[in-house]
Records
---
Amino acid sequence: MAMFKRFFQTLKFKAMARQLRKPGGTVGNKVGLMMNKANEFLYDCTINTMQLTCNDKLLEIGFGNGKFFDKLFAAAPGLHVTGLDFSHTMINAAKENNQLSINEGRLMIAQGSSDQMPFADNSFDKIFCINVIYFWDEPHLHLQEIGRVLKPGGRFFATIRTKESMELMPFTKYGFTKYNENEWNELVEQNQFSFEKAVQINEPEVEFEGKPFRVWSLCLVAEKK
Ligand SMILES: C[S@@+](CC[C@H](N)C(=O)[O-])C[C@H]1O[C@@H](n2cnc3c(N)ncnc32)[C@H](O)[C@@H]1O
């Protein structure tokens, strides 16, 4: 009996990990809403760290259902934002959630993967992603591509839950690469960035399967060399 329970639990965690990597279909839309609840605080802190200015050209990689684009415009009216995500389901949800910003020309949504982006060299002043780098199987390819589309001196902000926090969540055994500050520092330095700082984010508790979890997060900031 215990063996069956373990087996089904493993299946459930694997399915959850797959959905977090690339949300799809009706379940994917529910996962999108769940992420809004769990990750809004990370958006607020990352936006604060980025110190956006009205003239910034900004790219978000892996925006989920795009619920928080409005927070960017509230931080810096006049900002020009591009969003990139490889999930068809999330692209549709983000378009639905941001019709006005898209029609007014301040938001552009594109489908694609961060290791092969449909953007010209030196396009952006700042690029950020929240809860995305765990899914990069070959991170150097993504970092090189981010380096290509960032302007010289541009900054890349990667917000993550720390390795220790991720290890508390059983689904992260399946296909997640977890980083601590030093590991990320080393990786970006090998890929045309200078590591600048890690901003600690003290999150309120998040809920997983009805249980509260105390988790720690970092906004990792690197500058294109
Ligand atoms: C765990 S969700 C995080 C969503 C949102 N940023 C948040 O923190 O709530 C990961 C998102 O990144 C997207 N994603 C993952 N890897 C990607 C890649 N290589 N290129 C583009 N999008 C990616 C997924 O489709 C999904 O929307």
---
Amino acid sequence: MKCSLCGGEATIKLVYANLKLCEDCFCTYIENRIKKKMRKFIHGRKYAVAVSGGKDSMTVLYLMKKLFPESLSFAFFIDLGLPGFSQEARKKVSQLASSLEVPLKILSLKEEYGFDLADIAEGRVRKARKKKVCRACAVVKRYLMNKVAWESGVHGVITGHNADDAAVTTVMNLFNIEFERLLHLAPYNPPIPDLHLSAKLKLLYHVREEEVRLYAGIRKIPYLDAKCPYVQGREPTQHLYKRMLDTLEERMPEIKLRILAMLKELKKRMEPEEFPQYLCERCGFPTVNPKKICNFCRIVEEVKG
Ligand SMILES: [Zn+2]
Ligand SMILES: [Zn+2]
């Protein structure tokens, strides 16, 4: 098999793009796609990268350093206190940040707020119930990412969401008839200063998960390949949708990117909806709750009893 670009020995087939590529040309192809799609959101601005230790966010950190070093302000890791996970992740993140010479901030939920996700999962804190851990995790991550970026004065935060994540979320929201959520699903969400909301950028929005995995492998990017210890028992709905799209992809190689193209067209035809947003009376960050207490402050209140 010959590389479509350099004529060398190809090992990677990108069926949706009708390309056969060698490892070098594959990496260049991915890097060029990201540069082309993302430059307009990044150029002249400073960003923080949220790293979890998983392959997507670690690849984002690597790519930012390689493609847009002048816009990379720092990386940060939130230690959520997940048993057998957070410590390992922290090690990998420190290893990558120091090898790339990127400043790293580590924020420990336990040290800052006196509780962590293990306390919630195992019912050690008053009132907090076991089943709430996944929801609490999502709230805590979203809140702290924004807070860290906002308080450090960067333009926004970059996360590791890839094309598969975006396609799965699109299909889920369609099936759940939650169309208004689709309006916010984008590679870039601008900041809203009045609401103390930083910009959010998904650097890998146009890159399929399989491509991220290949890229990370070829570039030897260290990452933690482990599942969250609290994903057990019933398979999360998201994973079911993911498997459905993976199955479709076998016959329709472009399906995930096509879903994202569909989303783009769909949004053009939708009326933008104005959400009433308030500032939380406790912490000053945004909330849609008319009682003006955000979800994060509610969790803090709940665990402290
Ligand atoms: Zn090549
Ligand atoms: Zn709050």
